[in-house]
């Protein structure tokens, strides 16, 4: 049974003390030159040994069970090699501290297995060099969005009431958790940069430096979201034109000052010309001009600009059926391929809309072969139950990362990086819903290895979080998490059509909530049918943004996968899906099934009562009641809505209101 949250309010999550037993009960030697990260590794092993009776020393010679061999400290190399002869010792070799740290956490995952039998030399290196979490944290409490935009885990762990929290211990514990799942970069403030937050770049950079010091100890670089208008709002210049010499000089100087205090600063994250944020369009410049200006300021220091591709018209006229928000990112960015600087990374949401429970993979990801690219996922559950519902997203992310836009290369190989919007806050469990920790862990591990089997990652999380758990707990946890994404999909918006959420806060159903809004997120249901015609033949032409292998599949309702069919097609209720039912019957069936699945998960959780620490069990049990209430509400609103529109009764005569 995992321990209750300790009195300092910091849940050990996937690093409970017991996970260190195999390591801490053995004799470890660290060989090689030390540096800050090697010191961190030493500290980890020493603490484990103090708890479990093992020993740790520097140098060579003495008999031992584990050798941690490091060539030097410096460098970006994150790889390590694991090897073991049948009679030991186990050896982890790395060229630098980063690799050694990852090697240490790998040993934790292996547990006792790391010290048994023979291990052929195994080289581990991350598939993606950029593995980043973006916090949408505000320093001030925003009047509408609160402290953490789309945050469902309390306040920010960095900021409170307009100032830094100064809780280095909590930040250090967080950095440790992130490093243990493979994350190596963090952006500490919201992409929507308001007035107070803009100043983090200049006079408040010391607060960022204090955070960076904690992250650095675990090999994590700190990044900052900046406003494109900074030269105006902070520098007093008349313009933020990216081609203006004074503007460029201002950014150069501001950036130099950042590096004075944070020598390993990662770089900037920019949301420009998006949902009201300023950008290069105001000056008749392209997004490549904007990104390259910041890239030029960062280049001398080795920094990177993450430029977001989430650019669309958020003041659309709902009467206009030719404008399609899904097309926007591709239309804006595909023509710019080859124009971005080498240290600019285009950060693209995984789907063309906005983190819905089901979207096709964004065609932008395959459209810029000469541009560095990061895929952005939403770990925070804005549209997937807001950390009141269990919705483990590993399966969805894995499908995205394995998808072959050109029919050959998986997304995980096209991308240079994976970015997740953080789901963490000052909640004692970090993530509000204790089981939402699994999403954060899975995100990090899939960024390290996008080809990994997500279910194995889930089991890894279960094993680490609950060391020595009885089989019933392991299988119970697996049962309630695996499949929870599909359950969520079943009781919410059907067949890839998306949204149908309450406007503004996005929790709970409102089928027409966005139907007559300016946001470009419509389903077009009428008495005859539902869905968005995005075909090239008769619709918005979005389907033609894909390479032919997929353009052809999506263009025809007969070949389009059911789960996306209303994203690409407007179909009559009687249309027969590939799976054999009609659109309307599918809607009814999945909504009844979804609620049944949540009920079953709730009951499974209840059966684990004696196996889970009581306060943790109670929190999840309570959240399940809310999830079930909400799932029923979704079912009844969606089913009633479509029954009233279509007049078609449920083939099984179930209750529709
Ligand atoms: C979503 C979300 C916003 C966020 C935006 C973004 O639209 O609702 O709160 O700012 O994504 O990714 O920039």
UniProtKB/TrEMBL annotation:
This is Alpha-glucuronidase. Gene3D superfamilies: Alpha-glucuronidase, C-terminal domain, Glycosidases. Residues 431-654 form the Glycosyl hydrolase family 67 C-terminal domain. SUPFAM superfamilies: (Trans)glycosidases, beta-N-acetylhexosaminidase-like domain. It comes from Streptomyces flavalbus. The lineage of its organism: Bacteria, Bacillati, Actinomycetota, Actinomycetes, Kitasatosporales. Residues 123-430 form the Glycosyl hydrolase family 67 catalytic domain. InterPro entries: A-glucoronidase_C_sf, GH, Glyco_hydro_67_C, Glyco_hydro_67_cat, Hex-like_dom2. Pfam families: Glyco_hydro_67C, Glyco_hydro_67M. Keywords: Hydrolase.
């Amino acid at each position: 049974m995992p321990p209750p949250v300790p009195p300092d309010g910091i849940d050990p999550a996937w690093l409970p003390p017991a996970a260190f037993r195999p390591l801490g009960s053995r004799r470890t030697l660290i060989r090689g030159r030390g540096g800050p990260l090697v010191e961190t590794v030493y500290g980890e092993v020493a603490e484990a040994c103090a708890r479990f009776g093992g020993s740790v020393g520097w140098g060579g010679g003495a008999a031992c069970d584990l050798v941690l061999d490091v060539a030097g400290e410096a460098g970006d190399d994150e790889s390590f090699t694991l090897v073991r002869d049948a009679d030991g010792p186990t050896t982890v070799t790395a060229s630098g501290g980063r690799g050694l740290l990852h090697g240490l956490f790998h040993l934790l995952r292996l547990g006792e297995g790391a010290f048994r039998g023979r291990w052929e030399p195994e080289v581990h290196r991350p598939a993606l060099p950029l593995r980043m979490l973006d916090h949408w944290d505000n320093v001030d409490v925003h009047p509408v969005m609160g402290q953490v935009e789309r945050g469902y885990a309390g306040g920010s762990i960095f900021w409170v009431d307009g100032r830094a929290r100064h809780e280095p211990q909590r930040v250090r514990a967080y950095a440790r958790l992130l490093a243990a799942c493979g994350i190596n970069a963090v952006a500490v403030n919201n992409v929507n940069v308001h007035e107070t937050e803009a100043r983090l770049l200049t006079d408040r950079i010391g607060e960022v430096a204090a955070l960076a010091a904690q992250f650095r100890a675990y090999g994590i670089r700190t990044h900052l979201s900046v406003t494109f208008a900074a030269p105006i709002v902070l520098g007093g210049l008349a313009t933020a034109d990216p081609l203006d010499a004074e503007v460029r000089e201002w950014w150069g100087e501001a950036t130099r000052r950042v590096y004075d205090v944070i020598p390993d600063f990662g770089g900037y994250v920019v949301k420009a010309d998006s949902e009201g944020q300023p950008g290069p369009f105001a000056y008749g410049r392209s997004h490549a001009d904007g990104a390259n200006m910041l890239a030029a300021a960062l280049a001398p220091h080795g920094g990177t600009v993450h430029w977001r591709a989430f650019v669309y018209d958020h003041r659309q006229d709902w009467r206009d059926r030719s404008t399609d928000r899904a097309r926007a990112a591709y239309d804006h960015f595909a023509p710019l391929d080859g124009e971005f600087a080498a240290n600019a990374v285009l950060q693209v949401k995984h789907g063309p809309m906005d983190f819905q429970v089901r979207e096709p993979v964004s065609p932008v990801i395959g459209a810029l072969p000469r541009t560095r690219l990061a895929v952005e996922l939403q770990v925070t559950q804005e549209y997937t139950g807001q950390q009141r519902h269990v919705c483990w997203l590993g399966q969805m992310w894995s499908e995205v990362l394995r998808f072959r836009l050109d029919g050959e290369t998986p997304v995980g190989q096209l991308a240079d990086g994976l970015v997740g919007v953080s789901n963490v806050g000052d909640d004692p469990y970090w993530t509000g819903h204790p089981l939402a920790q699994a999403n954060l862990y899975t995100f990090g591990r899939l960024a390290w290895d996008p080809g990994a089997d997500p279910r194995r990652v889930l089991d890894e999380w279960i094993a680490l979080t609950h060391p020595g758990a009885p089989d019933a707990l392991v299988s119970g946890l697996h049962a309630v998490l695996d499949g929870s994404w599909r359950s969520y999909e079943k009781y919410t918006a059907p067949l890839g059509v998306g949204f149908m959420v309450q406007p503004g806060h996005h929790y709970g159903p409102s089928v027409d909530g966005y139907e007559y809004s300016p946001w470009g997120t419509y389903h077009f249901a009428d008495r005859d049918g539902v869905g968005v015609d995005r075909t090239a033949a008769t619709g918005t032409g979005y389907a033609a943004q894909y390479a032919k292998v997929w353009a052809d599949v999506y263009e025809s309702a007969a070949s389009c996968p059911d789960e996306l069919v209303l994203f690409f097609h407007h179909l009559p209720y009687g249309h027969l899906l590939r799976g054999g039912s009609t659109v309307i019957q599918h809607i009814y069936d999945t909504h009844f099934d979804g609620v049944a699945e949540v009920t079953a998960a709730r009951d499974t959780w209840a059966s684990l009562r004696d196996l889970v620490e009581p306060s943790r069990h109670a929190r999840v049990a309570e959240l399940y009641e809310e999830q079930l209430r909400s799932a029923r509400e979704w079912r009844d609103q969606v089913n009633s809505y479509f029954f009233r529109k279509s007049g078609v009764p449920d083939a099984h005569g179930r209750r529709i209101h």
